[in-house]
Design brief:
single chain; alpha/beta; 11% strand; 10 helices; 299 residues; Rossmann fold
Length: 299
């Protein structure tokens, strides 16, 4: 005998059956006595990771270099034709430029050659720059030419313009450096091609790693049409490496940016970094990092 239930009661019984027999989510698995394994990072965290990764992988990095060197090349012959044109700061022009052979002056590291593999090794190891490892990298002669620089320097050489590299690589790295430049197709000729740190300049007192004495040396022989670098010390002497001192050094020459002086990006290292912690490399790494964070703007 069948019993007909009221519609509302039948619906209520059906809903209760569905709820008890069909849970809305799987039941939690039984607890396991096995220990939970947490992956351990094999590479220590490094503040320079993004900067090195950008330098190596971002097409924007390459485009900036191409844009800079192509723009410079488009202006070079006009600078050559203008006999009054000179790209040395007044303190470094110790001999009149009139009648001197034309030249372009370039820094090497991160201006001409890409040393990001060395920086990548430091990120991987968790280490910091040291002279022995840096010299070993230079002696490998494996740094690649940065985009646009080979075409620019070859164009300059083809038009009778000397190509001079003023670098803070130590002078005893000259042979390895010149070999690396040649491998990459960069023009190298003459005794003034590479002026490394430690180059003797008579009657000029070397200030740390500043390049002023070497710029003064070439001022006796060349009218400099353009300078290229990734640090402002590649263009002018910086007497105080802090925000105010760096601005003061550049202020008289702001109109030269993009015409006589061409500045390239380097977020991986440079004098800008120690300027943030009072140039005190003896401070512990965590303290230097704390001061760098303190220098940031938050509005």
């Amino acid at each position: 005998m069948s019993v007909r239930l009221p519609a509302a009661l039948a619906a209520l019984i059906l809903l209760a059956g569905c709820t008890s027999g069909s849970p809305t989510k799987p039941a939690a698995p039984a607890a396991s006595s096995a220990p939970i394994t947490v992956p351990v990072a094999t590479t220590p965290a490094d503040d320079n990771l993004n900067a090195v990764a950008w330098s190596q992988t971002a097409i924007e990095h390459d485009l900036i270099y191409l844009q800079t060197y192509r723009d410079a090349q488009s202006r070079l012959l006009a600078a050559l034709a203008d006999k009054q044109w000179d790209a040395l700061p007044k303190d470094d022009r110790v001999a009149p430029a009139k009648g001197l052979k034309p030249a372009v002056v370039l820094d090497i590291d991160e201006t001409v050659l890409d040393n990001s593999p060395y920086q990548a090794r430091l990120v991987k190891s968790g280490g910091e720059y040291n002279e022995a490892d840096w010299a070993a990298w230079c002696n490998e002669q494996r740094a690649r030419a940065l985009p646009g620089v080979v075409a620019f320097t070859q164009f300059a050489a083809e038009h009778g313009i000397a190509v001079i590299y003023i670098s803070n690589r130590a002078k005893d790295l000259d042979q390895a450096t010149l070999a690396n430049l040649r491998k990459e197709g960069l023009p190298v000729s003459g005794p003034d091609a590479f002026l490394g740190l430690g180059t003797f300049v008579e009657d000029c007192e070397q200030i740390g790693t500043e390049k002023g004495c070497r710029r003064q040396l070439i001022s006796h022989k060349y009218r400099v049409l353009m300078q290229f670098g990734d640090q402002i010390g590649d263009f002018v002497t910086v007497l105080a490496n802090n925000a105010e001192g760096r601005q003061k050094a550049m202020k008289p020459y702001m109109d030269w940016i993009g015409t006589r002086w061409f500045v390239l990006p380097n977020p991986t290292y440079g004098a800008w970094e120690p300027a943030l912690f009072n140039n005190d490399w003896t401070a512990p790494r965590d303290e230097r990092r704390r001061q760098k964070i303190q220098s940031l703007r938050f509005n």
